[in-house]
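Bug #77: duplicate submission created two jobs. Keeping one. Sequence:
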Amino acid sequence: MSDMHAAQEKSLLANENLVEEQEAVVSRLENLLSRGKRAVDCSTFC
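Kept job's structure:
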């Protein structure tokens, strides 16, 4: 029984790590997209 519990905890930790990694990737993509948008705006209006 305790083996199953340990496996569940390990799985939960792995899922939390994946979520954190995904959030970091999304944040980086949002930054890149907003930078790209600014570059496009500047090229059309500068």
